[in-house]
Design a protein that fits this description.
The protein is of the alpha/beta class. The chain has a single domain, classed as Rossmann fold. 48% of the residues lie in helices and 16% in strands. It contains 6 helices and 5 strands. It has helices at 15-25, 39-43, 55-76, 91-103, 120-125, 133-145; strands at residues 3-9, 30-33, 79-83, 107-110, 128-130. A 5-stranded parallel β-sheet has the order 2-1-3-4-5, with helices on both faces. InterPro entries: YtoQ_family_protein.
């Protein structure tokens, strides 16, 4: 039986690929899922529902279509990894962490020390805080192999 891991958050670095490569190298039976990480595709997710008079409404429609994927994949996962990058504010990642906490879904945060303070509540509900993708792979290896 495969362990299911949803990779949420920052999309500007290759952290997802690092975790996937590490899990593969360790021979872990893990199915990884993620949000749509292509900015333009994500922004346009609701465009087929009709024109929007303002940017807010385009974002509103697209965020709801994106949420179908996000909510479904988080609910189906065994664990969620939530990455907060240093360069941008990832409000969507914070929302995903809160959703996990509300569901009782275990999650691990992945971020640097410089943002510990603003993420104190998010980290407090997490099962672990990692600073590198390699640490996440070690967590995955432990939880899937014991």
């Amino acid at each position: 039986m495969s362990f299911r891991v949803y990779l949420s958050g920052e999309i500007h670095t290759d952290w997802r690929e690092e975790i996937q490569r590490g899990a593969e190298a360790a021979g872990l039976d893990i199915v990884f899922t993620a949000p749509v990480t292509d900015h333009e595709a994500s922004y346009a997710a609701g465009d087929h529902l009709g024109p929007a008079s303002e940017g807010f409404w385009r974002d509103h429609k697209s965020s709801k279509v994106n949420a179908i994927r996000t909510k479904t994949l988080i609910e189906q996962s065994d664990l969620v990894v939530v990455r907060f990058g240093d360069q941008y504010k990832q409000w969507n990642a914070a929302f995903d962490a809160g959703y996990c906490a509300a569901l009782g879904k275990p999650y691990v945060t992945l971020h640097g020390e410089q943002i510990v303070h603003p993420l104190k509540e998010v980290d407090a509900a997490a099962m672990a805080w990692a600073t590198t993708p390699a640490q996440v792979v070690e967590i995955l290896e432990y939880v899937t192999r014991g």
